[in-house]
Amino acid sequence: MQGSSKTYTPSQIDDLFNPPDWYPDEHAPLPSIVEHGIPKTVQACGSCHLMSGTGHPESAGLAGLPAGYIIREMGNFKSKVRIDPARMNAIAAGTPDDDVKAAANWFAELKPKPWFRVVETKTVPKTYVNRVRMRLPAAGGGTEPLGNRIIELPEDAERASSRDPHSGFITYVPVGSLKKGEALVKTGGSGKTIQCAICHGESLQGLGEVPGIGGRSALYIGRQLYDIQTGTRAGSWDVLMKGVVAKLSEDDILSISAYVASRSQ
């Protein structure tokens, strides 16, 4: 891997209980739950969220999130007031409280970095979703209309598939969505919602235990807005967002997510 002295075989890269740590000098010592998980029970946090905490679009970026927020959300996954159809409910249920706190404190100390480059476009590369839920360019190449979608692809598919925390993503969004999203985020869209800055801060980087949202995955932001709207995510703090998202259309959610992702961390 570029800039790394480490080498891993494909099977080691895919080992969810011992994920690669390409740049160990770039972070503090790893908690065991982040590095190894719990053998045969709970996969390592770093396997999805990476040792940089930046994550992938199909997971979540945790770097710099308040420790209290991470602990609270793990509790919500455990109690199933927040549903993840993939794996987080089982992971939360199997992770001891001390390990949750250790991971939360460790991720909270990481500095978030620009990870998504937002591009307005009418066409995107043809893609497919691999066995670990990552969307990648189709082997045959070609393009197709983006339509009313958000597509997030790695800047370098091989490096992203190898869990390289130095290789980010491109967020493709419909033409005009950033302007629509900016109006909703900054003004509330004439009563459709409220200004995001009220809770998430003027820079959208969070206030207290309210998480930062600026510069994070548009797909992730969109999933959360939709999950809160539909009740799939219904924790004690999530209910405060219920009224905020109640009137949003799918197009509104897309535009807000696109704009928020474009705000650098």
Account of the 3D structure:
This protein has 265 residues and is an alpha+beta fold. It has a domain at 10-109: Orthogonal Bundle (Cytochrome Bc1 Complex, Chain D, domain 2). 37% of the residues lie in helices and 11% in strands. The protein is built from twelve helices and seven strands. It has helices at 10-13, 32-35, 45-49, 67-79, 88-94, 97-109, 157-161, 177-187, 197-200, 218-230, 239-245, 250-262, and strands spanning 116-121, 123-125, 127-129, 135-137, 143-145, 151-154, 169-174. It has a three-stranded mixed beta sheet. Strand 3 (127-129) and strand 4 (135-137) form a beta hairpin. Helix 4 packs across helix 5 (88-94). The longest helix is centred in the N-terminal third of the chain and has 13 residues, at 67-79. The relative contact order is 0.15. The mean pLDDT is 96.
Q: Secondary-structure map with pairings?
A:
Elements: H1 10-13, H2 32-35, H3 45-49, H4 67-79, H5 88-94, H6 97-109, E1 116-121, E2 123-125, E3 127-129, E4 135-137, E5 143-145, E6 151-154, H7 157-161, E7 169-174, H8 177-187, H9 197-200, H10 218-230, H11 239-245, H12 250-262
Parallel strand pairs: 1-7
Antiparallel strand pairs: 2-5, 3-4, 6-7
Helix pairs in contact: 4-5, 4-6, 8-12, 10-11, 10-12
Q: What fold name goes in the CATH topology slot of the domain at 10-109?
A: Cytochrome Bc1 Complex, Chain D, domain 2
Number of strands: 7
Task: Report, as a whole number of angstroms, the end-to-end distance.
Answer: 25 Å
Radius of gyration, taken over Cα atoms and rounded to an integer in Å: 18 Å
Q: What share of residues is helical? A: 25-40%
CATH homologous superfamily grouping of the domain at 10-109: Cytochrome c-like domain
The general outline is globular
- Structural class determined from secondary elements: alpha+beta
| Major sheet characteristics | 3 strands, mixed
Instruction: Point out poorly predicted stretches.
Output: none
Task: Provide a count of the helices.
Answer: 12
CATH top level assignment of the domain at 10-109: Mainly Alpha
User: Beta-strand percentage?
Assistant: 5-15%
Biggest sheet strand order reads 1-7-6
Mean pLDDT: 96
- Label the CATH architecture of the domain at 10-109: Orthogonal Bundle
